[in-house]
Amino acid sequence: MRIRSLARFPAFLLLFAAVSFAAAPPQVIRLERFRKALWKVHVTFQGKPGDFLLDTGGGMTLFSESYAASTGCKFWGRVTGYNMFGVRGDGPRCENVQLRAGDIPLTPVTAGRIDFGDRFAGDKAPDGLLSLDSFAGKTITLDQTAGTLTIETAESFAERVKSMKELPLKLARECSGMCLDAFVGVPVSEGTAWLTLDSGAGGVSLIAKDYARFFGLDPAVKEQRLVFQIADGVDVESPVMVTDMIMDGNLGQPFLSRYLVTLDLAAGRMWVAKAG
Q: Can you count the helices (H) and strands (E) in the chain?
């Protein structure tokens, strides 16, 4: 078969081909400050706008009662989960929820409901929680210095992690598979402790009493200071609460705000680099 020379194709067809084969850029979601150390994301669902707290430790994307009512989302059945202290929560669920951050469609999820109560007294409470399940299957980079969350392409991801350090990561699917949490592996003297990454924990880290001594902490003292190297060149230094938990521990904003964090939520891999 004879192949025609490109020179004989109309110019507009060549331009169309170039645009069609150009790599799509990464999608950048702008974060807005909420209180001193937290972030929120402006989203829409079925045309209804809302400001959701970015909570990488939340497990499940949740609607406030008022936001849920405004969307007409059909809640039914029950979803059951436990917070880090073992407190059980039950509530109905709404399926096939696809939020948009600006013009960026997020991963469809099953959403639950939340009552914030007086947790944010003095401020307008968020319209919901935006958790990792809304990014399932994607590779994301959280850059708090720039105030962005980037959904990476294959090309931008490969370039991004060239100068970053990979850390061990486990993804957990709880709540009958509807929740998604990420745990970083931290080597201690007896093995590996797995600490959840929690952007919704503003000013403190948490370590379970059973693991306190492996982090140089006193199991009998609730409020202390954690200074620990979790990997070569990667450390955490923050106030810490030693308490009863159903997980090994929690790394909140005192750690996450100091690092650029890339999570491959399809393959279960994680990279970090010093922020700034």
A: 4, 23
Whose tokens are 């890339």? That residue is 262
Residue 242 CB partners (closer than 8 Å, separation 6+): 206, 207, 208, 209, 212, 217, 218, 219, 221, 222, 223, 224
Note the Cα 167 to chain centre separation in Å.
16
DSSP 42-101: EEEETTEEEEEEE-TTS-S-EEEHHHHHHHT---EEEEEEE-TT--EEEEEEEEEE--EE
* Cα–chain center distance at 245: 21
Closest CA to 209 of 235, 239, 182, 247: 247
Question: What pTM, to 2 d.p., does this model score?
Answer: 0.89
How far apart (Å, rounded) are the C-alpha atoms in residues 11 and 151?
Answer: 33
- Enumerate domains of the chain plus CATH numbers: 27-151 (2.40.70.10), 160-274 (2.40.70)
Beta-strand relationship, 234-243 and 205-208: parallel
- CA 254 → CA 50, 215, 251, distances in Å? 27, 16, 7
Condensed to tens digits (0 to 9), the pLDDT of residues 229-269 reads: 999 999 999 999 999 999 999 999 999 999 999 999 999 99
Residues 138 and 26 sit within 8 Å (Cβ to Cβ): no
Are residues 160 and 140 in contact, defined by beta-carbon separation less than 8 angstroms?
Answer: no
**Per-residue pLDDT reduced to its tens digit, 51-87:** 999 999 999 999 999 999 999 999 999 999 999 999 9
The two tokens of residue 231 are 């990997």
**Which of 156, 157, 117, 151 has the alpha carbon at shortest distance from 137?**
151
Q: Which amino acid appears at position 28 of this protein?
A: V
Q: Residue 202's closest CA among 79, 52, 41, 35?
A: 35
What is the number of residues in the chain? 276
